[in-house]
Design goal:
Blueprint: H1 2-18, H2 24-30, H3 36-44, H4 63-84, H5 87-96, H6 98-114, H7 127-133, H8 138-142, H9 147-153, H10 160-167, H11 174-196, H12 199-226, H13 232-238, H14 248-255, H15 260-269, H16 271-275, H17 284-302, H18 307-333, H19 337-345
Length: 347
């Protein structure tokens, strides 16, 4: 009863928001439109975007502006949920929001590595959200010209330590800084989940994130061996240090497999190889989003008055924006509808 009471108002709010998410049928209509202004006009008529886009003239919008507006809708929905959440739910949302901070930090770091001195990150989609939910000084960070200056400005923030450790290594790459942020975030979530949750909430969070981390590790091992021919020691150093259903000895066997056939044989014996019989090592990346989406939808349906409802909605909203961005790009370049839907579904 306590779970139902604590989530009842929030679950009702999320169900109302979920009913406005763009469907696959609507995406199929969008990719058949004649141009970007027509796609923007279509979105203006949908319940999800009608109010916030009402004053926008779609004829004066270009693709980049639409993408910023779509990004901003993620943060707007997050804030709506946050306003309905109780203190414990807000603690989870505060932790979840670190992914948004990492997203913009990665954009800024990419600019520093690309030496885009005249093209700083456009902060307009993020500014209002960060004002409410972050203590990062985005404007100051966005003026930095070097990585040492950027990292020094983060002193006192939780992201300073993981980035400063990478800075201590000679010839650190953009990939290394991004990976350090991701590993820090994933480890934080895993380590604090038992402090934040109990009962069914704890079980759902453990399942959702545990399978996510296992699948990401499987993807990375497969790609690092097949595409980059990395040595085992280098692969181990970059894996998420968490094991859920993927056992440590299975991880070791996969990393040290001497051939694709040996890798596939080990994979077939893992929990994921047995559970998802149509899944092969070669299709891990394609199946990742499909599997994670199914986990979240199943947990959310099983218990709509739980943290899975929050996580599921935010996941689906972010992927809606990704798919709409791809759809509008396909409209812009006149991609055939069947090809466009394949791109969208593989996202």
């Amino acid at each position: 009863m306590g779970s139902i009471l604590s989530y009842s108002g929030l679950s009702t709010k999320i169900r109302a928001m979920q009913s406005k998410l763009i469907t696959e049928d609507q995406l199929a209509e969008i990719i058949r439109l004649s141009g970007v202004p027509q796609a923007a006009a279509y979105l203006k008529r949908t319940p999800a975007y009608a109010d916030t886009w009402a004053s926008v003239d779609e004829n004066n919008l270009h693709r980049g502006q639409i993408e910023k507006m779509l990004k901003a809708s993620i943060f707007r929905d997050f804030s709506k949920i946050y306003n309905f959440a109780n203190s414990r739910q807000r603690t989870f949302l505060d932790l979840y929001s670190r992914r948004y901070e990492i997203r913009v930090l990665k954009e800024m770091i990419t600019n520093l590595f690309d030496h885009r001195d005249t093209d700083p990150v456009d902060l307009s989609p993020y500014r209002e959200f960060f004002r409410r939910h972050s203590n990062l000084d985005l404007d100051a960070l966005n003026t930095c010209k070097t990585m040492p200056e950027f990292i020094n400005l983060l002193k006192g923030n939780e992201f300073y330590l993981p980035l400063s450790h990478i800075q201590d290594h000679e010839n650190a790459l953009l990939f290394d800084y991004g990976m350090a942020l991701d590993l820090y975030y994933f480890t934080q979530i895993w380590n604090v989940r038992k402090k934040l949750f109990s009962g069914n909430d704890l079980k759902q969070i453990t399942t959702a994130y545990g399978e996510k981390f296992d699948l990401l590790n499987l993807q990375f091992i497969q790609r690092s061996k097949q595409c980059f021919h990395m040595q085992p020691a280098d692969i181990y150093a970059l894996l998420i240090p968490i094991n859920y259903k993927l056992k440590k000895e299975e991880t070791r066997s996969l990393v040290e497999a001497s051939s694709a056939d040996e890798f596939n044989a080990v994979f077939r014996r893992t929990y994921y190889g047995k559970k998802y019989t149509k899944l092969s090592a070669a299709s891990l990346e394609e199946f990742y989003n499909y599997i994670l989406r199914n986990i979240l939808e199943k947990e959310s349906r099983r218990d709509p008055y739980s943290v899975a409802t929050l996580y599921s909605y935010l996941y689906h909203k972010e992927h809606e924006v990704n798919r709409l961005t791809i759809a509008i790009e396909c409209v812009r370049y006149g991609v055939e509808p069947d090809d466009a839907m394949r791109y969208i579904r593989s996202n």
